[in-house]
């Protein structure tokens, strides 16, 4: 378990991630993280533009074909 402290950064507030956590996430200074709200809290994952585009495409298709997908699920 890691306890993280919120720190003032200009007009914003940030969190400093320890080296061990950065290593587990396989990210380093300058990388982007994807923030996802889940039923269990907030999830941080490395941001990958390619995967983000794929997720957006699936979400669009799911909305567009919602009725067909519901019918197929029966």
Key attributes of the depicted protein:
single chain, 74 residues, alpha+beta, two-stranded antiparallel ribbon, 4 strands
SSE inventory with pairings:
Elements (H helix, E strand, L loop, with lengths): L5 E4 L2 E4 L3 H7 L7 E6 L2 E6 L2 H16 L1 H8 L1
> Ends: how far apart?
42 Å
Percentage of β-strand residues: 25-35%
Strand line-up across the major sheet: 1-2
**Rg from alpha-carbon coordinates:** 18 Å
The description of the largest β-sheet is: 2 strands, antiparallel
Q: What's the assembly state of these chains? A: single chain
Helical/strand content category? alpha+beta
> Roughly what percent helix?
40-55%
The string of secondary-structure elements, in order, is EEHEEHH
Mean pLDDT: 91
So what's the overall shape? elongated
Outline the structure in words:
Strand 1 (6-9) and strand 2 (12-15) form a beta hairpin. The protein is elongated and about 50 Å long. The model has no long low-confidence stretch (mean pLDDT 91). The strands form 2 sheets. It has a two-stranded antiparallel sheet. Strands 3-4 form a two-stranded antiparallel ribbon. The protein has one domain (6-73). The chain contains 3 helices and 4 strands, in the order E-E-H-E-E-H-H. The protein has helices spanning 19-25, 49-64, 66-73, and strands spanning 6-9, 12-15, 33-38, 41-46. By secondary structure, the protein is of the alpha+beta class. The protein is 42% helix and 27% strand.
């Amino acid at each position: 378990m890691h306890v993280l402290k919120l720190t003032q950064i200009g007009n914003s507030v940030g969190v400093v991630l320890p080296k061990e956590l950065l290593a587990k996430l396989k990210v380093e200074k300058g990388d982007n993280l994807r923030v996802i709200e889940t039923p269990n809290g907030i999830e941080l994952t490395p941001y990958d533009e390619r995967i983000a585009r794929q997720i957006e495409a699936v979400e669009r298709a799911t909305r567009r074909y919602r009725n067909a997908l519901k019918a197929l699920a029966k």
